């Protein structure tokens, strides 16, 4: 994307002489940003704009054009794009609105736009966007009125209005940008494209995203996980509650829908999700200048006891730890700080601390190997020296460059100058404790993500599966114009994937039912087999613990009768006869296909408690061994499975194995849109697990 | 407290001529705050300070003194207080440090201070505090360097440093104060005293508290619930995680300790708890000027789609609702707004909206009865009119004074003037959506609290209890130097309070055991009876389902043998024989005594799930009928009890009844520090519930 962010030449098509018009503002911004390449205003009705020669058409420009910024009315965009194509333009930023977002003719227009762009190989940003900026080039090809400050933060936003408001607001919190991208309608280039580029961009230290939709879910995750190995990505996703409410398919489907899939995807990609604009930027400020901490043990130096208390509460309630200072540090602080000071973490240098006392405490904590990151709190009191203390922080931050330092200077006028010193010297500074805590949370979360991504690579290859066998069943079902597999069919499918199932066969007659029952061995369970009957018990379609031929025959007759009585229109295939297996601990394993991110796997406690406590975990397929294990350990059910109150531990490896096989199944056969094993009976360690009921739905 | 906040005369004892000294700053602040009463500096070594005549002692002043502000060194405070007492001073604000907070001699000094104060009837603020302010008097009797702005927010803080930092910071967010109190060591006056006063204070619209400790828990709750009927109280409690970690008694004790008791207390008092300083003030700004909404359905007007999306996500994820606009409003908006605008909530007036279009949308939503509160979002875009839009908001807020309006103006320079217009006209304005959402959350929470407090008054009198009977057992146990009641004793106690129990008797011999078994009826349960053995099953001390005399005799022998073998030092009283009752749905009801707030009641699902999912609810005793019902309905277990997946509903009224009786029991007999009924078997509706095991521990 070099020709987009660092073009040698730019044409502004639709440049205007009238101040206030977008075509004027864009051209003015490009010139005023200090852009050093060639700029060609294109406007058939003007000779000169802002002192530059204007052209009737881009085709009239004799030199090559890397980037075209298009601000003509929507109706004219297609013609302009044709010309750009002919001219050999590499990138087009289409600011003009009037495309997909207005519906109807706009949708058509956008389709044609993509066709033209593809024909000529022009890559497109937008349409219906604010433009792009590269503060290092420097280039401001947007129509915002705020230039932005140079720095290491890249911001990619799907909301132009939000982007321009934030550009106006950003100087207050001292954030500097590398590149800014307004995505607009994402007709061509989308978030994944920009992530891939920004991941390699040396000027970008951290990437911020505001997205309302994700276009290529799987690619987004793949690119994301590559980038987050190198630098953090922080996402504010708009529309998370709406989406969550909409997803309401079947039981497990409802729990896995939308938001859950997103969370599983972000977990896999190592992307940090936040829920507010402040968090996005509070984290960005820290990532922009500070190193990644080696752990989550935080040290605190404060001149206000209350500040230390509030920060401790926030850190701990958000899962971080207070560093336990080394004996050496405690002794040193005790011998140097006044007797009333607190020498334990939080270190309270007390109200009359001047800069020299802050220096003693800060340096002691930076030296302490038990401290991974440092938070310095200052409240202006009678003898406090805010500026001198700020200088001490700057000095020590340079001396100990491997540990992050964040400052919280609470106050107004009395800390203003000190804050300026910190900002100018790249120390993140916040006006409130919670903002610094959000930032530290981001730093430590990223530190864990990097560690995680390095280890998570190991894959387990499951070889002993019969894909052809499973596929044959699914294709047969499709031929019969069904989407829902019958129980014995679903069980066959998972059996082909090496998942132990309670032996189950379809019987179309009483004789056949008895024959099967004898073969699998009594006692047996007999159930109605019909693609139209989902809740089998409700219509009297299930008989448990049958011990003789007579009982099986009786059950067969009653079930068929019940089915005909209560569901007269249902297509009845017969009954399934299943060997009754010993009861184990019940768990549920499911998979569902998210329209954006593909297959999501679910694990949870079986029975009513799954529904009641939502004690379930999710991961994107395919699973690594580690992810399968995590799915189990991160649920509360794990405590039960591990052996609760003297119970023997359950065979957790057997669950891991089933999870991996289900993961392989849905990955191999993507036409499965939903499946669950409910319950999976899990026995004692070494004894294994068995799928008692299996449900599979295809596309 | 009129003589504290609006004194006719003030003596500053320890006033100093040296700028920078606390005794100088305090006097200067009093003078510069515009205080109109008499001010008498007291300093034995000065004639005049800051132009006022100085006195050698307060006794030298001829007029009466309402308020003494004391800034002399700790060693001199007691003598000064004697003089204040003799002089008839009403209130003393003791800024001097060197008391309880330094331990040792400081503790002694504070004790003596309280004695002197009591002797003369002088009420004391502090010691070791920053002082007090009344912005309406006006009077600034603190040593902060920031005067503060006048308004309706009272702030009572246990951290002086935090208080002064916040005073410096407050102008940024546009908050105005009525009174400011630095509590210091709370030797005499504490948070409950100030709450009581501020509740009646007409100049105070909302009370903010920062507390690290609560001194009189029950009084705090009582005063709190009286005040919150009139105006909101918002608390930032420091040390919530520390406290939570420390509380680790028995199982239910651990769950009910510290933080849980606090939460139950705040629920009873109707106090809103926040976890950050920003939330405290973001709410305060809204309460200071806006009416309380009649519900939680929020309307949104925005010129940025992204802003509307983010706010919607935040509102919904925090339990608020988006208002569903009336048909009339939608039609009206459709006919007046441009076709691309969104006429549903959030109403998107789109990027090119000027003030007139905002006016149309805002007024339509204010008129709509489905909208309880309105949030107006503005982002500066090319044609946006921030100032004009601010004026529109001010105008409409006056026209529709019964609905709260909050503004979110995101940006920097371009919205600065508009923000000033809003602040000057008492419209709460925030720079980020999440801040406004926090404020709206406060408004709606308070609206619910007020409604709740009005209804919660109904008490249920439980008459049919035998307090004397229960007390006799507890006193007998005390005589035996035991704290833990034996099972049959505990069951007797609850039986005296009308709680159905499985009949249980103590048997000291085999013969007696058989006799009891025959009387209560087979089958029976036999358990070891020993004050030293808590986990009876672990030592083979429990036999279930015994059906004959022989089985009971055999069980008696084995249990005594097992007990002697595994717990040779345990005092064995015999065995308890209990009628085996039919299994019901298991729930747990408990009570524990918090050192600050007294008895807390607990309700939850019985069995392993209580521990695993922490699905429990708490309330402060004594319970009203409504609270007892809420304790059940707010747990997830309620879904199970109400009848899950076709099960018949359980007898919820029976649980309510047991809760009310346990509440009465611990209220009548406060020496009970811990008790639980675990399990309580609950049967089908109308069939009742029965306590199967009961544990009681006394002081």
Q: What oligomerization state is this entry in?
A: homodimer
Question: Most extensive interface, residues per chain?
Answer: A-B, 73 and 73 residues
How are the strands ordered across the major sheet of chain A?
A: 9-8-11-10-12-13-14
- Shape field of chain A: flat
Given this structure, which CATH class of the largest domain in chain A is correct? Alpha Beta
Computed over alpha carbons, the radius of gyration of chain A is 32 Å
Residue-averaged pLDDT of chain A, rounded? 91
The secondary-structure class of chain A comes to alpha/beta
Low-confidence stretches of chain A: 243-257
Q: How much strand content do the residues of chain A show?
A: 15-25%
Q: What percent of the residues of chain A sit in helical stretches (DSSP H or I)?
A: 40-55%
Kindly report the name of the CATH homologous superfamily of the largest domain in chain A: Succinyl-CoA synthetase domains
